[in-house]
Amino acid sequence: MRKMTYYIGTTLDGFIAGPDDEVDFFPLSEEFTRFMATDFGDALPTHVRRAMGVDETPNARFDTIVMGRRTYDPALALGVTNPYAHLRTVVFSRTLMPADPDVEVTAADPVARVRELKAEDSPHDVYLAGGGALAGLLLDEIDRVVVKKYPVVAGSGIPAFVTGFRPTSFALEQVATFDNGCAVLSYARP
C-alpha cells in the first residue's frame, strides 16, 4: 500500500497561509529553491517546474495530488485548470464543476477516496497539498508530514490542521536547514 504525505509550508505559529490565502510572505532563497526542485520537484506546480527547468524530470515521489477547493482556486483564478499536469489531480469540492477533463473534481467522502488511492498499485505516493480543513479530516490517513517551517510569525491565518483536539504522534525522521532560515522537518507515523 502506498503512503500519503502532507507536504506543506507553515509559519512558526502553524499557519499555511494568511487569512486571505496569502503565501507571498514566505522567504525563499536560491539554496532553498534548489532543494525544493531537486528533493520535492514532484510537488511543484507544472508551470514552476517548467520555469525551473525540471519539467522533464520524471516524478520521483508522487504521482497523485489531492487538495481542497481553496487550494485549487488560486490556479483557477489565473485560468489554470490543471496546475499539476504532471500528477493525477483530485480536488475535493461539493460545489465546484469540473473545468479540466484531467482533473478529478469529486464530492465523494475524502477519507474513502484517499483510501482507494492509497490502495492502488504504484511505486509513487500520494501528495496532500492542503488545505487545513482537508488535512484535519484526513489526519488518520496521513503517513508522513513534511513541514517547511519558515521563520515567520503570521498571527492568524489558515492553520495546517483544522480538527478537534486530537493529539496524533509522528516520529521525526530528518531535519534540513537552509540559508533563508527555513527548516524542513520530515515526520512519519511511528
Explained architecture:
The protein is 22% helix and 28% strand. With 190 residues, it is of the alpha/beta class. It has a single domain (4-188), classed as Dihydrofolate Reductase, subunit A (3-Layer(aba) Sandwich). The longest helix is centred in the N-terminal third of the chain and has 10 residues, at 30-39. It is globular and about 40 Å long.
* Number of strand segments: 10
Taken as a percent bin, the fraction of beta residues is 25-35%
- Tally of separate helices: 5
The CATH topology assignment is: Dihydrofolate Reductase, subunit A
Shape: globular
Taking the sheet with the most strands, its summary is:
8 strands, mixed
Task: Quickly count the domains.
Answer: 1
Helix fraction, binned, reads 10-25%
InterPro entries: DHFR-like_dom_sf (IPR024072), Riboflavin_Biosynth_HTPR (IPR050765)
Protein name: Dihydrofolate reductase family protein
Organism: Mumia xiangluensis
